[in-house]
């Protein structure tokens, strides 16, 4: 065997073990999304530390809505987009349709979500709509890019179904959000509405949309919009992608394809029914909540079966984060059923339970799962970008050398403690306890930030050493 062949073999093996393939895009593409998302997460947590009353009081006010959109659009959505650009081509064995389109979409998304968060904080709904339109362009580019990528998939499976479903719900969530923003604006009789004015038709259309949204209860519309995004986009994507990632990282296989498909079908049916019944405040929302819970139960049973069949018995901290987040779906489902009960009285306690439900959904299940996958993806991206070309030529660090497992472990327990403390404090409407819980969460995120800084430092200063070759047995020097 030639020396070139011997060099190429370990290099290819390392890339496969790292979860990369020829289908993966440039590492700089997902990294820009992930770093931006992490900055948004840290900013949002700083706001909660400074103003803990946002969680200790009812959630329908401008500051809570602004901070929520910072977490949803700035942190979760940004990270999810970056991860999908990396994972969808690899998981579905196809090329991303366009990296240039993805780079352009990042700019629209960045301007859109930062402007929306700022305008929500000042409660300038007209400007929220303007920046929301910019965000919508970015979402449209993202959906188009991933949809065209899905059309290239050689074998359609439950992962592709989950991704396609999430794209559909994301589109509807953005449209619903824009519709709500339009409904909160005022459209005065101005010269722009005069016949012949090129903007008159647009303004007349906006007035019609505003009149239509006025028919619905504002709280119901907001909750329906939130479920489209949180449950439709994020939970659906976690379910679909984990059918690929959990088997890949644990050396296992999907155990029952019908059960996996049933989980996605139940989630889609339940979400559609939940959106309509929450919007109309119909008593059947409890029935559709049961359908969603049934879908999550099928998902949990399948994940448990995958874990029982795994060949890699030891779970790293990234997977522990992710699987713990999945486990949090159980108590969250119970709380969802309680809140969807039509006979539940509207009291101060009910309002705080709704706060706790939203908090545990976004910062508990979704964020905890994302942090887990963050620890799986970021080291791979950096290692691949810094060291993949050096395999067989120089001595390079292993993936485990790029971060601190001790910081991961400390961050895991601090995050769990922070979630528990904050959730209880929210229900009790205790501002001091909310701040204490958020301080624990901030401490955990500090360990994440330190690990990310250490990982990214390998892009700036790669740790490469000369390769020491041992002579074969029986070889004289």
Measured by DSSP, the beta-strand proportion falls in: under 5%
Largest sheet: 2 strands, antiparallel
Q: How far apart, in Å, are the first and last alpha carbons?
A: 21 Å
What is the number of strand segments?
2
Number of helices: 16
H-E order: HHHHHHHHHHHHHHEHHE
Structural class: mainly alpha
Q: How would the global form be characterised?
A: globular
As residue ranges, the low-confidence spans are 1-20
Query: Mind telling me the C-alpha Rg?
Result: 24 Å
The helix content is over 70%
Spatially, the strands of the biggest sheet line up as 1-2
- What's the rounded overall pLDDT mean? 85
Q: Could you characterize the architecture of this molecule?
A:
The chain is mainly alpha-helical and 477 residues long. Helix content is 75%, strand content 1%. It has helices at residues 3-17, 28-50, 53-56, 62-91, 99-122, 125-150, 158-183, 200-213, 218-250, 257-280, 285-308, 317-327, 329-340, 348-387, 405-428, 431-460; strands at 394-395, 465-466. Helix 2 packs parallel to helix 5, helix 7 runs antiparallel to helix 9 (218-250) and helix 9 packs parallel to helix 14 (348-387). It is globular and about 75 Å long. 43% of the residues are buried.
Topology (elements, then pairings):
Layout lengths: L2 H15 L10 H23 L2 H4 L5 H30 L7 H24 L2 H26 L7 H26 L16 H14 L4 H33 L6 H24 L4 H24 L8 H11 L1 H12 L7 H40 L6 E2 L9 H24 L2 H30 L4 E2 L11
Antiparallel strand pairs: 1-2
Helix pairs in contact: 2-4, 2-5, 2-14, 2-16, 4-5, 4-6, 4-9, 4-14, 5-6, 6-7, 7-8, 7-9, 7-10, 9-10, 9-11, 9-14, 10-11, 11-13, 12-14, 12-15, 13-14, 14-15, 14-16, 15-16
């Amino acid at each position: 065997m030639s020396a070139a062949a011997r060099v190429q073999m370990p290099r290819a093996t390392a890339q496969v073990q790292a979860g990369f393939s020829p289908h993966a895009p440039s590492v700089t593409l997902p990294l820009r999304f992930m770093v931006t998302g992490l900055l948004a997460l840290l900013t949002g947590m700083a706001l909660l530390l400074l103003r803990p009353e946002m969680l200790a009081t009812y959630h329908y006010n401008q500051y809570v809505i602004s901070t929520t959109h910072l977490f949803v659009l700035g942190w979760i959505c940004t990270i999810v987009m970056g991860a999908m650009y990396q994972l969808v081509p690899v998981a579905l064995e196809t090329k991303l349709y366009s990296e240039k389109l993805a780079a352009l979409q990042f700019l629209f998304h960045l301007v859109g979500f930062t402007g929306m968060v700022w305008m929500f904080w000042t409660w300038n709904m007209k400007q929220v709509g303007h920046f929301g339109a910019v965000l919508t362009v970015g979402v449209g580019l993202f959906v188009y890019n991933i949809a065209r990528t899905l059309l290239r998939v050689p074998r359609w499976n439950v992962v592709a179904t989950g991704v396609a479903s999430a794209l559909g719900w994301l589109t509807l969530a953005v449209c619903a959000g824009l519709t709500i923003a339009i409904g909160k604006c005022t459209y005065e009789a101005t010269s722009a509405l005069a016949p012949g004015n090129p903007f008159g038709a647009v303004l007349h259309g906006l007035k019609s949309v505003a009149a239509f949204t006025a028919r619905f209860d504002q709280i119901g519309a907001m909750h329906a919009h939130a479920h489209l995004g949180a449950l439709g986009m994020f939970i659906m994507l976690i379910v679909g992608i984990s059918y690929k990632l959990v088997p890949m990282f644990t050396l296992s296989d999907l155990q029952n394809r019908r059960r996996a498909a049933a989980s996605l079908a139940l989630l889609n049916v339940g979400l559609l029914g939940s959106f309509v019944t929450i919007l109309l405040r119909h008593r059947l929302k409890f029935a559709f909540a049961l359908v969603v819970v049934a879908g999550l139960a099928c998902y949990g049973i399948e994940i448990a079966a995958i874990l029982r069949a795994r060949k890699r018995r030891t779970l790293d901290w990234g997977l522990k984060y992710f699987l713990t987040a999945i486990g949090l779906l159980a108590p969250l489902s119970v709380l969802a059923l309680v809140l969807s009960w039509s006979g539940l009285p509207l009291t101060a306690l009910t309002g705080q339970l709704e706060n706790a439900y939203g908090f545990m959904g976004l910062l508990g299940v979704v964020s905890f799962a994302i942090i887990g996958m963050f620890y799986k993806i970021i080291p791979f991206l950096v290692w691949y970008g810094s060291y993949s070309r050096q395999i067989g030529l120089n001595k390079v660090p292993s993936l485990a050398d790029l971060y601190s497992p001790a910081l991961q472990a400390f961050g895991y327990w601090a995050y769990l403690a922070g979630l528990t403390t904050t959730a209880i404090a929210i229900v009790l409407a205790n501002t001091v306890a909310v701040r204490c819980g958020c301080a624990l969460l901030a401490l955990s995120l500090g360990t994440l930030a330190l690990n990310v800084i250490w990982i990214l430092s390998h892009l700036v200063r790669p740790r490469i050493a000369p390769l020491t070759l041992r002579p074969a047995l029986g070889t004289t020097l």
